[in-house]
Amino acid sequence: MKRIKNLFLSVLSVFVLGVSFSCTDKLDSQEGQLNTSDLDYTDTEDMIQPLLGAYSEFTSRGWEEPLLLGVRGDDVNAGGEGDQQPFADTDRFVYSKDYWMYNSLWAVHYNDIVNMNAAILQIENFKQFADADGVALADQYIAEISVLRAWFHLNLAKVWGDVFIITSNQPLEEVQDGPQSKEAVLQWISDQMDIAIPNLPNLRPNERADIPGGVTAYTAYAIKALANQELENYQGVADAAGKIINSGRFSLYPDFYQLFKKPGELSDESLLEMQYSDFGSETGDAVYHLYAPFGPQNWTPARENASSGWGFYEPSLKFIKFMLDRNESVRLQTSVLFTDRGITELKDDGYTNLPGLVSNTTPSGDVINDYARALFASGKHYLPSNQLTDGRNDYGAGKNMIVIRYAEILLMYAEAITHGASANGISADEAVNMVRSRAGMSALIGVTTDQVLDEKFAELAMEWGIRYYDMIRLDKYNELSYDGRTFTAGDELLPYPQAQVDALPLQSNAELNAIRISNELMINQ
Amino acid sequence: MKKKILLAIALFISFYGINYAQEKTISGTITDNNAVPLPGATIKVIGKDIFAVTDFDGNFTLNNVVAGDVFEINFLGFQTLEVPITGQTTYQVQLQEDAGQLDEVIVVGYGTQRKRDLTGAISTIDSEEIEKTPTSNVMQSLQGKVSGVQIVSAGSPGDSPTVRIRGLGTFQNATSVLYVVDGTLYDNIDFLNTKDIKSVNVLKDASSSAIYGVRAANGVVIIETKSGKKNQKPVIEYDGYTGIQRAQNVMKMANAEQFTTMAFESGSAADAQFVMNAMQRYGRSRVNPNIPAVNTDWYKEVLREGIIQNHSIGVAGGGESVTYSIGTNYFTQEGILDMKNEYERFNIRSKVDIDISDRLRAGVNTVISNATKYVPENAAWFKAYFAVPIMPIIDPLNTEASPIRFANAQNLGYRGTQNPFTDLTYNDNKQKIRKILASIFFQYEIIPDKLDFKTTYSHNLSDFEERYVNLPYTLGNNFERISSIRRVDNTFSNQYWDNILTYDEEFGEHDLKLMAGASYRDEAANTFNATGQDITGISLESSWYLNFADPESFNNNVNEIGRRYYGISYFGRLEYSFMDRYLLYATMRADGSSKFTKDPWGYFPSVGLGWVVSDENFLKDNEFIDFLKFRASWGKLGNDNVAASDGSNTITVVTAAIDDEPRTGITSSSVFSNNTWEVIEEKNFGLNLELLDNDLSITADYYIRDTKDAILPVFIPIVNRSVNQNSGVIRNQGLELNVDYNHQVNEDFSFSIGANFTTLKNEAIEIDNESGYIDSGSAEFRQRTQEGGPLFAFYGYERTGVYQNQAQVDADPVAVENDLAPGDLIYRDQNGDGIIDDQDRIILGSFLPEYTFGGNIGFNYKFLDFSMNFYGQTGNKILNRKRGEIIFTQDTNMDADLAINRWHGEGTSNTYPSSAGLRKSWNQRLSNFWVEDGDFFRIQNIQVGYTIENDNLPTTRIYFTAERPFTFFDYNGFDPEVSDGVDRQTYPIPSVYTVGLNIKI
């Protein structure tokens, strides 16, 4: 009996110990997650995946980002009256660092920059195992991502001035010394483009077979031109824009109205475009931007059940009157959706003899009804309801958003020349007239800076705040002081968001000086 | 086997036949002091291998005893008695009930302990207290009854309350208390019927819970279910109650008139226009033609009364070598939100223990629980706050809305549709929760009464099916929703295998108990989910399956996540007492967990000391103090409920739309933390005091509980996400006091009064971050943890008043600088630099209460029993996020308090801004305008029962219960119970009124 008991005990203890030891190995296992280091980097076929991931990040923009980037211009008003008061305040140059939109724009932009950096690291991992062709491809992909990354930095520098340059995915070291000056950031962007250009294909984005609409050398030139424009280095603008113009690959899409609709997607005019789609399918996955904030709040769509928008982005009366005064037709009709209330407002202001295109029915047959929050809605962010995929009702569902187009390049080039830069291809007149001709406007001779700026106003209104950043670059504060607003030099930049000030070494030199002065004053008192 | 029986019979006969002169057989009956027989009492002759167990009538027989032997009688709840054998052959023995509860044996980790020997802080709540609360979750019934334990009720049927034991020491899953039910570990005990529970022990201090190592960080609750007794006649018990639940303290919203006034005062032309639109669409009020004819009280509309019912029937009993307890239970509860919102649970359980031989025991414990839960659309609570009162529920003019013509606020010009009834009507959220929980143990006495080995295997298999159906509808203004179904299948399979060796030794005045064990655990979880759209035949519930969805809609809508964690633990315990006066308790646990890749092993020791002063000679003869014990303990715990590595370096698959083609790409997150164990170290000092013939008992504990390497979400700027990482030391400290007085005045009348009081100071004493603080919450509603402050404190400006007139504005440089107007808030310039900026923000308070208190009063008079409990808390703050949402959109209604008490002219308010001011970002900054006091006092439970004792009837008790009938508070919300202090769409906690019946045969 005792022996049996001992046997029982020893078998049991061996069993217990045995199981315990075999379990110890299990402590090192991690089921259910794919670690970055576990990816098979020797399979360079997959190297394109981080790049596609980067494009996906590039297109995933919060709805507030384009709104906040653009709202301060004299081409557009906040709309949405009575809602999002601090957004309306921003439109009137009253800034609140606590407002969530500011923080969101900052945070989402920087987060995407870090994602870009992570994608570059991924591609570098693949590059280690790649053959010569693969290495070249890796360099191209990295260059593409650098261009996207530069675009984010460009926006940040335009909005806040001094910002951080982030080139790693562990950014804490890069922020230690505080933000870089706006000039340093812009110069860095320009230099980054010089590094990227040799590695990028000399194609129009829509000529790319692997990634139609992807970044090419000309996209990099465009970003370089934009950075130099901000730096007011107009020769740099003319040189970079000239490269694009002289390539002969780009042309203006003939139908200005459809350029911003589905037919105009990935046209020969496009240099950088955010691509969205529901892949023509009624249900299932879709990659959308939320266009509703741009849309009218009340409409009768030609196709039933197409949703209306929020009315947060209202073309200004100033812009519309400017266009009417110029006898613009196609560009006015494309840029603005009219309501009857808005039309009445125009008539009350003396525009009694309005052209037929000023109508609350769009050329595509959608009827814009009156709504309390705004008089007009943005036409460039409007997709006619009959261009929606069947079964898809979101406002503007699946419409692409053009970021940089050839018309801007031409006008930027022309402006640079009027500032004294030497032309390296066509003349300023030629550039401006190409744009005007498509819009059905007569040719100009001997264009001045102001004429180019007017042309930019007419051509590029509502797009990405281009107008606003032109005005503050040239200190044309009187243009921004419209409809009861008063713009002063101190209003150019947004304040850093409170959440970021709390988290980052973000006391700019100006603020530090202000504190020093106020402290001295207090001491003196 | 047959041979053995034969042998036994032969032996029996031979003993019977040969009658030794001095050996004899005695018999007797064991009763309590009311002469009620006690079946199942164990009798042992000291020093001999002679045992007996009393039968149904309390009778026993002892063979082969001699005069001069002493037999010892043990029966749970009664004092052990030793009886010397004399010349008599029959013995009538009356046992005395335990004085107080000191001799009560309570369940501690992997064993039991006498209450008087405890050195840690353990609170016990018995079944009687638990059963008073009509609830699906036993933890709810602890609210206000245990000091140091905060229970935040969950309003929705079937949801578990938030349980916090001794403050908040960590963030992630900070409330995932470990539940040990009959020795098996659970994270959630929603499957337990309160009626099946015998006792709940809350292990509050680290020394008591350290035996559970990494699982114990947030406290341990040990639950013992009811079991049968040996030689007990089957007792059949039915218990059932039914009742209604209704919302209390329903928040008053601004009515159409107040809303209209606010809209006109806002200065926003659009908002005034919307009111005009409403008048145009729905007509003007006859009473006041300047307001619309519609006046909808949305809260009233979305609420309903809910039925609650519970029926349990069970049988418990036992024979010579088997005890059993089996039962079944049906529970159903409707939610108070007016939609398909209910919970239904059906349970079957059995617990059987068998003595296979005199040394080998085995037992099986199983629970099968099948529940269906219809989950509320909590968004409806928020929308009911949000929706404007000038819109009806149903708008006959809205002809484009189908199938029901619900009103759409967009038709009035508002941005959103607002109407909560679309959420209530067109959603069906079903969850099926099926659990099979089974355990089996074998226990072998290697050396009788000394060395004992027990092996237990348990398996919890849970299947959690979710089906969320979005029915299609249109709502006018081109609003159309297409049908979709989201299906989620979660499977959890948790296996535990414990092996325990226990050794007991007594020598002289020394008592020693040693325990050593090993535990292996394997916890696997799998979640599979898919969403399909455009369901064919959506109008029939029988086609609510993904098979009927448009196949293309699955593209990128199918996910699976799997996780499996392993753990191994070795642990041991030493319990030693000398002269029953000096107590030592020590445990050690080594835990290995696959969660912590950096260092899978953690070591968690604990020690406790106790001194029973009342047994010392200098106090022994004292008539005042019946019992006094001082306790001190120290222990360390780990926490594996937190992310071992957060953010992690992982790959996510994404889709890019390239030229209208979906292209698959990857993104990699790159910010991660590789954490080490979060360690909790706690010191506990306590005393137990019993006075006045044990009628008055006082328990007091003071603790300091430090969480070291606390894992907190640290905001990583630029990357713009929070990563949980080891980042500081958090201290919780507090005092817990329980006073109970029970007195039996006479045979017919007894009463009891009890009170408990808890203080809590929650503080971050070290933050490993250059800035010295950690931000959480959203950027607009900032919560900050900084050194010296509580965790996740609301952080913002201090409002000191409201600008009353233009002169006051003109006189204040701050107001001039910021372009303020009368009706705007005045903030305190904390640093006195003459400007109001971010430097002027301060901690506005924490959502953790500083003091909680509870109490009970009860009496029994003849067949009548009465009890009342109350509960309250003070010092906590609530962020009124419902109001705060106005910063995102001003299309909303507001509560009546805000509308009535707004500033609207000099002297009208010094706390609330004007209607126009509400829309200004100056006033929208987080300040204590948005953060309110969460103090409340509540009558928790009132119960009146009457027991019918009649020989012709089984014992029958009828009882009436009012649960949470009255709550008193100032907070401008539905309910001051908000678990994380941010009140956006909290499900309000209803009052429950029930009538119940209990029959025992």
Q: Walk across the major sheet of chain A and give the strand order.
A: 1-4
Radius of gyration computed on alpha carbons of chain B = 32 Å
Which fold name corresponds to the CATH topology of the domain at 105-227 in chain B?
A: Ferric Hydroxamate Uptake Protein, Chain A, domain 1
Number of strands of chain A: 8
- Based on the structure given, which CATH architecture of the largest domain in chain A is correct? Alpha Horseshoe
Q: State the secondary-structure class of chain B.
A: mainly beta
CATH class of the largest domain in chain A: Mainly Alpha
**What is the CATH C level class of the domain at 105-227 in chain B, in words?**
Mainly Beta
Average pLDDT figure of chain B: 85
Q: Average the pLDDT over all residues of chain A and give the rounded result.
A: 88
Number of helices of chain B: 14
Approximate shape of chain B: globular
Radius of gyration of chain A: 27 Å
Biggest interface pair, counts: A-B, 110 and 101 residues
The biggest beta sheet of chain A is recorded as: 2 strands, antiparallel
The low-pLDDT segments of chain A are 512-525
Q: Provide the CATH topology of the largest domain in chain A.
A: Serine Threonine Protein Phosphatase 5, Tetratricopeptide repeat
Which outline of chain A best applies? globular
For the record, the count of structural domains of chain A works out to 2
Describe this structure in words.
The complex is a heterodimer of chains A (525) and B (1001). With 525 residues, chain A is mainly alpha-helical. Chain A is built from 20 helices and eight strands. Chain A has two domains: 42-278 and 405-499, Serine Threonine Protein Phosphatase 5, Tetratricopeptide repeat, CATH 1.25.40.390; 292-399, no CATH class. In chain A, 47% of the residues lie in helices and 5% in strands. Chain B has 1001 residues and is mostly beta strands. Among the domains of chain B are: 2-95, Carboxypeptidase-like, regulatory domain (Immunoglobulin-like, Sandwich), CATH 2.60.40.1120; 105-227, TonB-dependent receptor, plug domain (Ferric Hydroxamate Uptake Protein, Chain A, domain 1), CATH 2.170.130.10. Chain B has 14 helices and 56 strands. Chain B has a 22-stranded antiparallel beta barrel. In chain B, strands 10-15-16-13-14 form a five-stranded mixed sheet. A four-stranded antiparallel sheet of chain B has the order 3-2-5-6, with no helix packed on it. Residues 1-21 of chain B have low confidence and may be disordered. Chain A: This is RagB/SusD family nutrient uptake outer membrane protein. Chain A: Its main location: membrane. Chain A: Belongs to the SusD family.
